[in-house]
Amino acid sequence: MFEARITQGSVLKKLVEALKELVTEGNFDVSNTGLSLQAMDSSHVCLVSLTLREDGFDHFRCDRNMAMGIHFGNLSKILKCAGNEDTITLKAEDNADQLTLMFESANQDRISDFDLKLMSIESEHLGIPDQDYSAEIKMPSSEYQRIVRDLTSIGDTVLISATKEGIKFSTSGDVGTANVTLRHNTTPEKPEEQTIIDLKEPVALTFALRYLNNFSKATPLAPQVKLSLTKDLPIVVEYQVGELGSVRFYLAPKIDDEDNMGEDEAQS
Amino acid sequence: MFEARITQGSVLKKLVEALKELVTEGNFDVSNTGLSLQAMDSSHVCLVSLTLREDGFDHFRCDRNMAMGIHFGNLSKILKCAGNEDTITLKAEDNADQLTLMFESANQDRISDFDLKLMSIESEHLGIPDQDYSAEIKMPSSEYQRIVRDLTSIGDTVLISATKEGIKFSTSGDVGTANVTLRHNTTPEKPEEQTIIDLKEPVALTFALRYLNNFSKATPLAPQVKLSLTKDLPIVVEYQVGELGSVRFYLAPKIDDEDNMGEDEAQS
DNA sequence: GTTTGTTAAA
DNA sequence: TTTAACAAAC
Known about the structure:
The structure is a homodimer. By secondary structure, chain A is mainly beta. Chain A starts with a strand and ends in a 17-residue tail after the last strand. Chain A has helices at 9-19, 72-79, 141-152, 209-215; strands at 2-6, 25-31, 34-40, 46-53, 59-62, 66-71, 87-92, 98-104, 110-117, 135-140, 157-163, 166-172, 177-182, 196-199, 203-208, 224-229, 235-241, 245-251. In chain A, strand 7 and strand 8 form a beta hairpin. Chain A has four helices and 18 strands. In chain A, strands 6-2-3-4-18-17-16-10-14 form a nine-stranded antiparallel beta sheet. A five-stranded antiparallel beta sheet of chain A has the order 5-1-7-8-9, covered by helices on one side. A four-stranded antiparallel beta sheet of chain A has the order 13-12-11-15. Chains A and B meet through helix 2 and strand 9 of A and helix 3 and strand 13 of B. Strand 9 of chain A pairs antiparallel with strand 13 (176-182) of chain B. Chains A, B: It comes from Volvox africanus.
């Protein structure tokens, strides 16, 4: 059987809220090392990879590896029934066709249990190699959210350029053009407000803002986000979920790449 | 003539907001004992019974019994014009075709009066016998609201089971199944958070969630709600409106009743 | 932490 | 128009 307990149920709620729009359905792969999910978004453009470590749970037991096919919309509906302060326990028998979710209020006054029907989903588990990236940028997740939201109102794609000067987000559209630059800054008042640029090599890549914007739904999960960039490779947008694990979003760059996309690409 | 004055006008506003969706029109029956209303909802499925005692008002006078036909949507429009801190006075001449509402701000700075046109409505006053119920449950009204709202996202009907263990709300639908259990609890920090189960006999009845959900519109009126259950009889959902009186909602159970509705009634 | 009101989006 | 997200107040 599989059983996983997390005291801070709000984390699970936020996770599913962050993913449900991108991933309509996917497999929760559970093993004795924890719970993971890998799924393409419905348009097969970007990849979501969730890893929750066994030791990040307050209790974790998995006798046998399982792939549980989850309809994220339905899981979201059920998690909406959990209080933010509830302890959540996930439970499934081996080869079960349902996942049981138990919600317990802090004072045990209220106990709810929900059975979520599981689906059978083709899993195409991709090995994602650990990469050495040309640039790794850590920045406040709220800042990332703000930038991609703002730029979305100007253009459809963004050129992200990392240099030793800082990281620049550029777009253009009918309205005009826009550039937002963040400088390396390791000493703000609060550590969550740091912007750290770890640069091996300058890099500039173009991405569809729509997806970068969607990734920012994970903002409530973590105060910081990490962007990893290498020429011709997908960007990785990663949120650390406390001690539990992380969510990573992968998005391939636009092929018409980095050399000549300064001010005037409105006519695409 | 009829004249009734209530210092805390917000109570009247909340009352009408709670009822107006269920009761599009109904008679305010006034007599020297107070004001009452009995009305079926527009689909003739459930019954609303409002009782406001004469001595709950700050001033009450009724020379002659009257049935004042009220269009609740219009009354709501007028009450929206009253401040929450206003004193409200209802006034009508004998056999008048209009009800006058006066709003006075606490410091008398502002005085408004509105005339609401009355309608002639067939009144079908039902005698509702005082019943001995198998189970009476008092619980926080916010908890009731939360449960029926949550379960509405899973299924259409709810099985309410009262046992000495507690009270359980169960539903099922396409997503899966759901059970929420509340335990008897007379000693939380605050008295409004008590859950009191007064059980003469275990009982389990099924109801349409849509209506139970609608009843919860009365939540702002009272911190606690009382559910009264007896086999084959309508559930009573009752809100005590301070010292003024009470609102009671009656809803008949589904006929396919309590014996075999545990886990697997998805295929309805 | 909960509620309410406002605003944005579907 | 309805509903969900966000912010502000309690």
